[in-house]
Amino acid sequence: MLTEDFMGLVNATKATLATVANDFSPAVFASSLAAEDMVLTDIILRSGLPIEIFTLETGRLHAETLAMADRIKQAYGYDIKLYKPETAAVDAYVRQNGLNAFYDSVEMRKECCRIRKVEPLKRALTEKKAWVTGQRRAQSATRAELAVQEHDQAHGMAKFNPLADWSEEDVWHYIRSNDVPYNSLHDRGYPSIGCEPCTRAIQPGEDVRAGRWWWENPESKECGLHVVDGKLVRIKAVQTSTA
Ligand code: SF4
């Protein structure tokens, strides 16, 4: 459902991002290049906020997702920074376990995510004061307690989720109203987009994240970017910037 005071929601998000830029510099935005992240990209770049935008180029992304980097360059004249996994670590994993060993067990999947996402993320966050994500509370059971501002224990810094209060309809209303470029996979049944072998299209009525690691239980469906030691961490909000 579209939030009644949609413009109030947008203005609160702009205020949160301005606070990040002013009070938590240097700050970065981890973009998955999906719809939510394009909303934040649009606000950051149109507002000229000094928040670096990067994506984790895992080596297993869809071509449509990778194409978003060029589309952002065309639309905004901005080069998204790409963080890639260490070649030696990827080679060793594939040599020992096979290219698609993540289907074999949760442990194998988490190890692949650790190599291709968690370690590059750690590099991207080095010496930063805060990072921003496009997560929303309504996306899944694992995000039900998401706050706009959290303390990220794993990385020892502030973490902002400026879209925590947004509905899916809010996201798409913003995109259509502002002519924001978006990943064409969203038009083909992919509300949530990750690596190609670990994401499938969903059926109407399914949870928006049901297509991510669909062979696992819902409780284990996070990639380690927002969890500590493989467990979900309910991080207490220290401030809610959109309040
Ligand atoms: S989402 Fe899949 S392919 Fe991508 S890093 Fe995780 S396990 Fe590997």
UniProtKB/TrEMBL annotation:
Residues 27-201 form the Phosphoadenosine phosphosulphate reductase domain. Its EC number is 1.8.4.10. Pathway: Sulfur metabolism; hydrogen sulfide biosynthesis; sulfite from sulfate. [4Fe-4S] cluster binds at C112, C113, C195, C198. It comes from Keguizhuia sedimenti. This is Adenosine 5'-phosphosulfate reductase. Coiled coil: none annotated. It is an enzyme of class 1 (oxidoreductase). GO terms for molecular function: phosphoadenylyl-sulfate reductase (thioredoxin) activity. It catalyses: [thioredoxin]-disulfide + sulfite + AMP + 2 H(+) = adenosine 5'-phosphosulfate + [thioredoxin]-dithiol. Keywords: Cytoplasm, Iron, Iron-sulfur, Metal-binding, Oxidoreductase. CDD domains: PAPS_reductase. The active site is at C223. Catalyzes the formation of sulfite from adenosine 5'-phosphosulfate (APS) using thioredoxin as an electron donor. The lineage of its organism: Bacteria, Pseudomonadati, Pseudomonadota, Betaproteobacteria, Burkholderiales. Binds 1 [4Fe-4S] cluster per subunit. It is found in: Cytoplasm. It comes from the Bacteria. Its cofactor is [4Fe-4S] cluster. Belongs to the PAPS reductase family. CysH subfamily.
